[in-house]
Amino acid sequence: MTSTEYIKPSDLSDLRHVMEEYKARATVIAGGTNLIPEMRNGERSPELFIDISDMTELSFIRENNGSIAIGAATTIAEVASSPVLLDSSPILASAAKQLGNPLTRNRATLGGNLANASPCADTAPPLLALDASVEILSPGGKTRQVPLSKFFHGYKFTDLVKGEILSGITFPKPNASTKGSHTKIGLRNAASICVASIAVILDMDGKTCRKARVAAGSVAPIPMRAYRVEKLLEGKEINATLLDECMAVLKEEISPISDIRGSLEYRSYVTAMILKRNIKRALK
Fold this sequence. Notes:
By secondary structure, this protein is an alpha+beta fold. The chain is 35% helix and 26% strand. It has helices spanning 12-22, 35-40, 76-81, 83-88, 90-97, 102-107, 110-115, 124-129, 148-151, 227-233, 240-253, 264-283, and strands spanning 5-7, 26-29, 48-51, 61-64, 67-71, 133-137, 143-147, 152-154, 157-158, 165-172, 178-185, 196-205, 208-217, 224-225. Strands 4-5-10-6-7 form a five-stranded antiparallel beta sheet. A four-stranded antiparallel beta sheet has the order 11-12-13-14. Strand 8 and strand 9 (157-158) form a beta hairpin. Helix 10 runs antiparallel to helix 11 (240-253) and helix 11 (240-253) packs antiparallel against helix 12 (264-283). The longest helix has 20 residues, at 264-283. The chain is globular, with a radius of gyration of 19 Å. The model has no long low-confidence stretch (mean pLDDT 93).
Protein backbone atom coordinates (compact mmCIF):
# COMPACT_ATOMS: atom_id res chain seq x y z
CA MET A 1 0.00 0.00 0.00
CA THR A 2 1.50 3.35 -1.04
CA SER A 3 1.57 6.51 1.08
CA THR A 4 -1.69 8.47 0.91
CA GLU A 5 -2.45 11.97 2.18
CA TYR A 6 -5.37 12.41 4.55
CA ILE A 7 -7.80 15.28 5.22
CA LYS A 8 -10.78 15.27 7.56
CA PRO A 9 -13.12 18.23 6.92
CA SER A 10 -14.73 19.72 10.02
CA ASP A 11 -18.13 20.42 8.46
CA LEU A 12 -20.01 20.59 5.16
CA SER A 13 -18.65 24.03 4.31
CA ASP A 14 -15.10 22.82 4.88
CA LEU A 15 -15.83 19.74 2.74
CA ARG A 16 -16.92 21.93 -0.17
CA HIS A 17 -13.70 23.94 0.00
CA VAL A 18 -11.54 20.83 0.26
CA MET A 19 -13.30 19.16 -2.66
CA GLU A 20 -12.89 22.32 -4.76
CA GLU A 21 -9.18 22.48 -4.03
CA TYR A 22 -8.34 18.79 -4.35
CA LYS A 23 -11.03 17.41 -6.68
CA ALA A 24 -8.53 16.03 -9.22
CA ARG A 25 -6.83 13.95 -6.52
CA ALA A 26 -9.49 13.33 -3.90
CA THR A 27 -10.99 9.99 -2.91
CA VAL A 28 -13.84 10.30 -0.43
CA ILE A 29 -13.89 7.69 2.34
CA ALA A 30 -16.35 6.99 5.14
CA GLY A 31 -16.43 3.36 6.30
CA GLY A 32 -13.83 2.17 3.79
CA THR A 33 -15.19 -1.38 3.78
CA ASN A 34 -14.89 -1.60 -0.01
CA LEU A 35 -12.00 0.77 -0.61
CA ILE A 36 -9.47 -0.61 1.89
CA PRO A 37 -9.67 -4.20 0.57
CA GLU A 38 -9.26 -2.87 -2.97
CA MET A 39 -6.15 -0.98 -1.89
CA ARG A 40 -4.74 -4.11 -0.25
CA ASN A 41 -5.32 -6.03 -3.47
CA GLY A 42 -3.58 -3.32 -5.51
CA GLU A 43 -6.77 -2.38 -7.37
CA ARG A 44 -6.82 1.22 -6.05
CA SER A 45 -4.04 3.64 -5.07
CA PRO A 46 -5.65 6.89 -3.88
CA GLU A 47 -3.44 9.97 -3.66
CA LEU A 48 -5.61 11.73 -1.09
CA PHE A 49 -8.29 10.59 1.35
CA ILE A 50 -11.08 12.97 2.33
CA ASP A 51 -12.72 11.42 5.40
CA ILE A 52 -16.42 12.23 5.92
CA SER A 53 -17.08 9.48 8.49
CA ASP A 54 -17.74 11.86 11.41
CA MET A 55 -19.72 14.51 9.54
CA THR A 56 -23.03 14.76 11.38
CA GLU A 57 -24.43 16.84 8.51
CA LEU A 58 -24.20 13.73 6.31
CA SER A 59 -25.39 11.23 8.93
CA PHE A 60 -29.15 11.27 9.57
CA ILE A 61 -32.46 9.56 8.86
CA ARG A 62 -35.43 11.94 8.67
CA GLU A 63 -39.05 11.92 7.67
CA ASN A 64 -40.29 15.24 6.36
CA ASN A 65 -43.34 16.26 4.32
CA GLY A 66 -44.05 12.78 2.99
CA SER A 67 -40.48 11.86 2.15
CA ILE A 68 -37.63 10.00 3.77
CA ALA A 69 -34.11 11.48 3.65
CA ILE A 70 -30.94 9.62 4.63
CA GLY A 71 -27.45 11.11 4.80
CA ALA A 72 -24.78 9.36 2.77
CA ALA A 73 -22.53 8.83 5.82
CA THR A 74 -25.29 7.03 7.75
CA THR A 75 -24.02 3.59 8.68
CA ILE A 76 -25.70 0.42 7.49
CA ALA A 77 -26.28 -0.54 11.13
CA GLU A 78 -28.22 2.70 11.65
CA VAL A 79 -30.30 2.00 8.53
CA ALA A 80 -31.05 -1.53 9.77
CA SER A 81 -32.24 -0.36 13.20
CA SER A 82 -33.93 2.96 12.35
CA PRO A 83 -37.51 3.19 13.74
CA VAL A 84 -38.38 5.51 10.85
CA LEU A 85 -37.31 2.94 8.25
CA LEU A 86 -38.65 -0.09 10.11
CA ASP A 87 -42.05 1.63 10.09
CA SER A 88 -42.10 3.23 6.63
CA SER A 89 -39.80 1.09 4.48
CA PRO A 90 -38.95 -2.21 6.18
CA ILE A 91 -37.54 -3.72 2.98
CA LEU A 92 -34.62 -1.27 3.19
CA ALA A 93 -34.00 -2.00 6.87
CA SER A 94 -34.19 -5.73 6.13
CA ALA A 95 -31.64 -5.48 3.32
CA ALA A 96 -29.30 -3.45 5.51
CA LYS A 97 -29.54 -6.04 8.29
CA GLN A 98 -28.33 -8.71 5.85
CA LEU A 99 -25.28 -6.77 4.67
CA GLY A 100 -22.05 -8.36 5.88
CA ASN A 101 -21.45 -8.89 9.59
CA PRO A 102 -21.97 -6.55 12.59
CA LEU A 103 -18.45 -5.12 12.28
CA THR A 104 -19.02 -4.28 8.60
CA ARG A 105 -22.47 -2.84 9.22
CA ASN A 106 -21.10 -0.54 11.91
CA ARG A 107 -18.47 0.84 9.50
CA ALA A 108 -20.07 0.69 6.06
CA THR A 109 -22.30 3.57 4.94
CA LEU A 110 -25.37 3.76 2.76
CA GLY A 111 -23.70 6.25 0.42
CA GLY A 112 -20.66 4.04 0.05
CA ASN A 113 -22.74 0.96 -0.70
CA LEU A 114 -24.37 2.82 -3.61
CA ALA A 115 -21.37 4.79 -4.86
CA ASN A 116 -19.30 1.61 -5.10
CA ALA A 117 -21.71 0.62 -7.89
CA SER A 118 -21.44 -3.12 -7.40
CA PRO A 119 -24.21 -5.20 -8.98
CA CYS A 120 -24.54 -7.00 -5.64
CA ALA A 121 -24.96 -3.82 -3.53
CA ASP A 122 -27.44 -5.00 -0.89
CA THR A 123 -29.30 -1.72 -0.41
CA ALA A 124 -29.68 -0.88 -4.11
CA PRO A 125 -32.67 -3.11 -5.03
CA PRO A 126 -34.93 -1.93 -2.17
CA LEU A 127 -34.01 1.69 -2.84
CA LEU A 128 -34.73 1.23 -6.56
CA ALA A 129 -38.11 -0.28 -5.67
CA LEU A 130 -38.77 2.70 -3.39
CA ASP A 131 -38.19 5.14 -6.29
CA ALA A 132 -35.20 6.66 -4.50
CA SER A 133 -33.06 9.51 -5.79
CA VAL A 134 -29.52 10.39 -4.80
CA GLU A 135 -28.30 13.88 -3.97
CA ILE A 136 -24.93 14.69 -5.50
CA LEU A 137 -22.77 17.50 -4.11
CA SER A 138 -20.37 19.29 -6.45
CA PRO A 139 -17.08 20.94 -5.38
CA GLY A 140 -18.64 24.38 -5.80
CA GLY A 141 -21.40 23.53 -3.31
CA LYS A 142 -24.24 23.02 -5.78
CA THR A 143 -26.38 19.90 -5.52
CA ARG A 144 -28.29 17.89 -8.07
CA GLN A 145 -30.83 15.11 -7.75
CA VAL A 146 -30.50 11.96 -9.84
CA PRO A 147 -33.01 9.09 -9.81
CA LEU A 148 -31.23 6.00 -8.52
CA SER A 149 -32.45 4.17 -11.64
CA LYS A 150 -30.25 6.53 -13.69
CA PHE A 151 -27.32 6.70 -11.26
CA PHE A 152 -25.72 3.36 -12.21
CA HIS A 153 -24.17 3.51 -15.67
CA GLY A 154 -22.20 0.26 -15.65
CA TYR A 155 -20.11 -2.03 -13.49
CA LYS A 156 -18.41 0.22 -10.87
CA PHE A 157 -19.44 3.25 -12.97
CA THR A 158 -21.94 5.88 -11.80
CA ASP A 159 -23.20 9.36 -12.64
CA LEU A 160 -20.59 10.90 -10.31
CA VAL A 161 -17.89 12.98 -12.00
CA LYS A 162 -14.49 13.84 -10.54
CA GLY A 163 -14.84 15.94 -7.42
CA GLU A 164 -18.51 15.12 -6.79
CA ILE A 165 -19.74 13.09 -3.85
CA LEU A 166 -22.98 11.31 -3.08
CA SER A 167 -24.33 13.29 -0.15
CA GLY A 168 -27.80 11.87 0.46
CA ILE A 169 -30.63 9.59 -0.53
CA THR A 170 -34.35 10.47 -0.62
CA PHE A 171 -37.51 8.60 -1.49
CA PRO A 172 -41.25 9.20 -1.08
CA LYS A 173 -42.73 7.62 2.04
CA PRO A 174 -44.85 4.65 0.93
CA ASN A 175 -48.57 5.11 1.56
CA ALA A 176 -50.84 2.80 3.54
CA SER A 177 -51.91 0.80 0.47
CA THR A 178 -48.29 0.00 -0.42
CA LYS A 179 -46.78 -3.34 0.52
CA GLY A 180 -43.23 -4.55 0.01
CA SER A 181 -41.01 -7.59 0.28
CA HIS A 182 -37.30 -8.31 -0.18
CA THR A 183 -35.20 -11.46 -0.43
CA LYS A 184 -31.45 -11.90 -0.69
CA ILE A 185 -29.95 -15.23 -1.67
CA GLY A 186 -26.41 -15.94 -0.48
CA LEU A 187 -24.23 -18.99 -0.02
CA ARG A 188 -24.61 -18.87 3.76
CA ASN A 189 -26.80 -17.16 6.34
CA ALA A 190 -24.33 -14.53 7.52
CA ALA A 191 -21.81 -12.18 5.91
CA SER A 192 -22.51 -13.55 2.43
CA ILE A 193 -22.11 -11.73 -0.86
CA CYS A 194 -25.40 -11.61 -2.72
CA VAL A 195 -25.96 -14.29 -5.37
CA ALA A 196 -29.36 -12.87 -6.34
CA SER A 197 -31.87 -10.52 -4.76
CA ILE A 198 -35.32 -9.15 -5.46
CA ALA A 199 -37.19 -6.21 -3.97
CA VAL A 200 -40.89 -5.70 -4.68
CA ILE A 201 -43.19 -2.78 -3.90
CA LEU A 202 -46.87 -3.08 -4.79
CA ASP A 203 -49.49 -0.34 -4.45
CA MET A 204 -52.80 -2.18 -4.39
CA ASP A 205 -56.36 -1.01 -5.02
CA GLY A 206 -58.28 -3.91 -3.58
CA LYS A 207 -57.14 -6.93 -5.59
CA THR A 208 -55.81 -4.83 -8.47
CA CYS A 209 -52.19 -3.72 -8.68
CA ARG A 210 -52.23 0.02 -9.19
CA LYS A 211 -48.44 0.45 -9.26
CA ALA A 212 -45.53 -1.99 -9.15
CA ARG A 213 -41.82 -1.55 -8.58
CA VAL A 214 -39.52 -4.54 -8.98
CA ALA A 215 -35.75 -4.41 -8.67
CA ALA A 216 -33.04 -7.06 -8.82
CA GLY A 217 -29.43 -7.37 -7.73
CA SER A 218 -26.49 -9.56 -8.80
CA VAL A 219 -28.16 -10.57 -12.06
CA ALA A 220 -26.93 -7.81 -14.39
CA PRO A 221 -23.90 -5.48 -14.63
CA ILE A 222 -25.77 -3.01 -12.40
CA PRO A 223 -28.59 -3.18 -9.83
CA MET A 224 -31.64 -2.96 -12.08
CA ARG A 225 -35.33 -2.21 -12.30
CA ALA A 226 -37.40 -4.93 -13.97
CA TYR A 227 -39.54 -2.53 -16.01
CA ARG A 228 -41.25 -5.20 -18.12
CA VAL A 229 -42.35 -7.09 -15.02
CA GLU A 230 -43.69 -3.87 -13.50
CA LYS A 231 -45.70 -3.12 -16.64
CA LEU A 232 -47.07 -6.65 -16.68
CA LEU A 233 -48.33 -6.34 -13.09
CA GLU A 234 -49.87 -2.88 -13.24
CA GLY A 235 -53.61 -2.63 -13.80
CA LYS A 236 -54.21 -6.34 -13.25
CA GLU A 237 -55.44 -8.71 -10.56
CA ILE A 238 -52.51 -10.85 -9.51
CA ASN A 239 -53.12 -14.56 -9.91
CA ALA A 240 -51.10 -17.73 -10.51
CA THR A 241 -51.10 -17.31 -14.28
CA LEU A 242 -49.84 -13.74 -14.06
CA LEU A 243 -47.11 -14.77 -11.61
CA ASP A 244 -45.87 -17.40 -14.06
CA GLU A 245 -45.80 -14.76 -16.81
CA CYS A 246 -43.82 -12.42 -14.55
CA MET A 247 -41.26 -15.14 -13.88
CA ALA A 248 -40.82 -15.80 -17.60
CA VAL A 249 -40.47 -12.09 -18.40
CA LEU A 250 -37.96 -11.54 -15.60
CA LYS A 251 -35.74 -14.30 -16.97
CA GLU A 252 -35.68 -12.39 -20.27
CA GLU A 253 -34.88 -9.06 -18.59
CA ILE A 254 -31.95 -10.12 -16.45
CA SER A 255 -28.47 -11.00 -17.71
CA PRO A 256 -26.74 -13.03 -14.98
CA ILE A 257 -23.26 -14.46 -15.26
CA SER A 258 -21.63 -17.62 -13.93
CA ASP A 259 -18.99 -17.20 -11.22
CA ILE A 260 -17.76 -18.96 -8.09
CA ARG A 261 -20.98 -18.12 -6.23
CA GLY A 262 -23.43 -19.49 -8.79
CA SER A 263 -24.05 -20.40 -12.39
CA LEU A 264 -26.01 -18.33 -14.88
CA GLU A 265 -28.72 -21.01 -14.90
CA TYR A 266 -28.98 -21.08 -11.11
CA ARG A 267 -29.19 -17.31 -10.83
CA SER A 268 -31.87 -17.15 -13.51
CA TYR A 269 -33.96 -19.86 -11.82
CA VAL A 270 -33.63 -18.60 -8.27
CA THR A 271 -34.31 -14.95 -9.20
CA ALA A 272 -37.57 -15.92 -10.90
CA MET A 273 -38.57 -18.02 -7.90
CA ILE A 274 -37.90 -15.28 -5.34
CA LEU A 275 -39.80 -12.81 -7.53
CA LYS A 276 -42.87 -15.04 -7.25
CA ARG A 277 -42.30 -15.50 -3.51
CA ASN A 278 -41.93 -11.76 -2.87
CA ILE A 279 -45.00 -10.78 -4.85
CA LYS A 280 -47.04 -13.30 -2.85
CA ARG A 281 -45.55 -12.05 0.40
CA ALA A 282 -46.25 -8.42 -0.49
CA LEU A 283 -49.90 -9.28 -1.08
CA LYS A 284 -50.42 -10.64 2.45
